[in-house]
Amino acid sequence: MSSTGAKKGATGLARRSNQQLGPITAALLIQAATHTTQAAIDDEKRQLIAKYEKKLQKKAESEGVSVDQLVERMKQQQRQTTTSAPQAAAAASSPGSSNAKESPASRKSSGPLKKPLDEIVKVDLLTNESQEKISEIWNMYFGSKADTICGVMGAKVYMQLFERGKQYPTFVLPYPRDEGYELFVLQFYGDQVYFTTLLEFQTFKENAPPLLVLSHYNEFFESKGIVLMKGDCADAKRLNASEARTLVYLLQMYYATGGQKKFKLVEEFHNNPTTFDYKALISETESLSLGS
To answer: Considering only CA atoms, which of 245, 231, 220, 114 is closest in space to residue 158?
Structure first.
């Protein structure tokens, strides 16, 4: 399957996620980002502006301003929104913010970019297969596709991932590049996870397109104890399958399998955005074996 389905009808990362996130907005991300050390901010700004120079130039031209003026406008918008970020984080993590546990079945068909499992494989034929055989068939089917990634996870890991994702639906992941790290924003939506760059999230807000849409299928959750995963890369030139696998690995490490120290950073990002320690995030990421 190609990534065409991930491109068609994309209404924007933040707009979809706001249906679930409620008070969580770009302000939380901007608030955290603006409290990185100034040297790191300036360095990242230079790297990202260079990387997205054409896109920024196009947006600046459409608004009749220079790139410098556009960047300055973004900085002003960040300063205007930072005052509301602590309240937004507190509201998102409060007991009344839909943190109640839900059954896997209730997430079966969520997400506008998710193709039903029975349109991908013959579910009735897989029902009689073993856990190992289903995993083999699934990975074999998607393993050779350049713009798609796949995987199979145990029910326990899936439950922990999405229970925590419901409580803390937004986070940033540092992806290693030759010149440093590029920050990606992830947002949970039902049984999907959307990824885009922090720069695009800040620049285009609700119109920021997802570069990776990660979908989970739990039809075999109860009978086989496994959940199927498929990720569609919207633009393989900007985020290829290998890079997408690294982001998914980081997602699972910080939300489920990497231990309490890594998950504590997710909690800190939501609970104390003004003092979030990006150096600790980078350090934890550097402790992992990542293929860039």
So the answer is: 220
How far apart, in whole angstroms, are the C-alpha atoms of residue 283 and residue 44? 16
List the alpha helices (DSSP H) in 82-204.
Answer: 85-92, 123-126, 131-142, 155-167, 198-204
pLDDT digits (tens, 9 = 90+) for 31-70: 444 444 344 445 555 555 555 566 677 777 877 878 777 7
Q: Cβ distance 25 to 197 under 8 Å?
A: no
The backbone torsions φ and ψ at residue 232, rounded to the nearest 5 degrees and listed phi first, read -110, 125
d(CA 45, CA 236): 24
Contacts of 105 (CB under 8 A, 6+ apart): 218, 221
Ranking 6-20, 62-76, 212-226 by mean pLDDT, the lowest is 6-20
Q: What does the pLDDT look like over 73-131, one tens digit per residue?
A: 665 554 443 333 333 333 333 434 444 445 444 444 445 568 899 998 899 999 999 99
Report CA 76 to chain centroid distance, whole Å: 25
Q: What sign has the CA pseudo-torsion 7, 10, 12, 13?
A: negative
Strand-strand pairing, 226-233 and 192-197: unpaired
pLDDT at 42: 54
In one-letter notation, the amino acid at residue 246 is T
User: 121: Cβ–Cβ under 8 A, 6 or more apart, which residues?
Assistant: 137, 138, 141
Number of other residues whose CB lies within 10 A of the CB of residue 222: 11
Lookup result for tokens 């990720």: 231
